[in-house]
Records
---
Amino acid sequence: MPVQDFLNQRAVNVVVSGSYTLPNWYDPQGKLRTFACRTTRVSPFRMIVDVPVVGKIGDRLTSYFRDFGKFEGSISDTMQGSFLLELEMTRARREKLSDMLTWIEKKQKDSTILDGRRHARIVPPHPHSMLTLADGSIHPCFIIDASASGIAVSAAVQPPVGMPLAVGACIGRVVRLLPDGIAVKFIEPQNVRNLDRLIARAAPVQPAATPDLSEPAVSAA
């Protein structure tokens, strides 16, 4: 299904963080690479997902979302930095997901639910940035989350612990490898109010270098 058609369908604008694997993307140990991702629009049949590596139409993949669980599916359309994922599941699970979407939407709109952490990590509104490595090479990356002291990103490249680099205009060093990316500590603490402006540097996200469900209109409310 084209993305534009999905935008005209009944769905819920819900932001949920997760991870996914693409076919034929392996780490040095021969295991499938895991990348971070985040939903932007979801129905019980498909979802738009912001990602660091887009993949190709027809690619089958496995994804996992904290609030939804594990999904199998295939890419039916792509955009810069995101794809449309067709969800493959039983009728019973679709009904359960529909109920869950309604609950999550209400929860995210409830202003009384606050984050009480003193140094809370934030999810910038612009999910894509650029990594500039020590050798001068520049690579697209996906922002998992950030704080005044550092940032977590997911990218096709995996710089090692200790490597100096820049995320957007913020200079730092890799301090930890994550299951779906890297953690970078900034050389100098940043002003959280300016953080999105400093790290948001969008660029075309490279597709993966590797080789439709039909249903009636659905109500997620």
---
Amino acid sequence: MPITLVNPSGLPKIDAYQQVSISTGSKLVFIAGQVAWDADGVTVGEGDLATQVERCYLNIATALADVGASLDDVAKLTVYVVDWTPDKMPLLMEGITRAVTKLGVTPAPPATLLGVAALDVPEHLVEIEATAVID
């Protein structure tokens, strides 16, 4: 596996992800921001942040599988949440937990969370992009 995840001493331990990823692979994979669309382009979980987060992770896993990778190969995630406030964290974590449990992945790679005013369509509450490294 080309990715090693680390929580360095001297930095806070975050439950949702590791602080650092070290890559040793030779090929970078960039996954465009994934939203809560199913394979037919229908929004899943309208109004439900946890369900949409879960679907974003599952879509990322699908994209990675198509190029011979998995979430274990992800070096970095960027998460965009519409109208972010800290009280949404439990829903975000619920969606992540459901997805990584289904996919059998732990711990999660480093991530950046950004609050945004809007996404591509009003029904989408979250968008997640990924960078992976594979051999």
---
Amino acid sequence: MLEHAISLALTGETFLPLPRAVLSGNVATEAARPSGQILDRLTDRQRDVFQLLLAGHSNKEIARELGVLEGTVKVHVRAIMQKLGVRNRTQVAVVAARSGCFPEDA
């Protein structure tokens, strides 16, 4: 695994080790839902946060972009995670990827 990580780093790619549960699909049942159904469960502001989250922005960057406090972003991120049935940002990204939610330019 280390050899693979180094080779990816040398080619400019990103290596992101994921927990077995994420790789095996045991993260959340929401992963099987089409992206529209996942997005339909989020409020408009949560969708804004969700898109910036998928683009890899930090809470501080999201707050600046949306003109809100960082604490507000944290509340939205927590609500998104709860609605998707995941526990961290990586799992949000995995569920989004499996559901086709990633922005086209990502």
